[in-house]
Amino acid sequence: MFQDRRDAGQRLAAALETYRSKHTLVLAIPRGGVEVGYQVAQYLTAGFSIIISRKLPFPDEPEAGFGAVAEDGSTFINPQATRWVDQDMIAGIIEQQKREIKRRVDVLRKGLPLPGIENQIVVLVDDGIAMGSTMRVSIDLCRNRRAKKIIVAVPVTGRQVEKEIGKLVDEIVVLEKPRFFHAVAQIYKNWYDVSDEEVIQIMDQWEREKAR
Fold it and tell me: If you count Cβ atoms within 10 Å of the first and of the last residue's Cβ in the chain, which end, N or C, has fewer?
């Protein structure tokens, strides 16, 4: 059990000691992954930025999703999705999420491009993995940009998802794998939805520290 995302990030950072001072780039998935990623990047003395990917939500059940899309257009769709959502609706949802991705790039990353990924050791961080769709497309983006090595690092996920995501990357680091895993929130004592404002504060703090 983690007290909060800060605690989870500090513990995750310690588990990534191997990558300390090795010209590593930490990319956090907002919004929940940003505090975790900040702690990891700070400990590893790594580069740090945010990578934007979005779940594709079901129209009548937005908390659930049938896939995801990343900021470079990389898309993952559950093969069974067309049983529940028709192609036109899928296309519309993808466009909606692409607009939200652009908004997040403009607001959370101030319109700046991602740092260079080619030939970098990239650590992809989130506060946990539920179904894994947003992480999948983030992995695809990093592979498309020719990362040297891709590591996924999260405080918590289910065992099956860990196995599936692990096949897609060079290494996966997970601190907690509950036998009965229902949601990322179950492993945090203090869980809340992170706001844009909090992400901006964290990224501004990072920039101030980097400028010292």
Answer: C
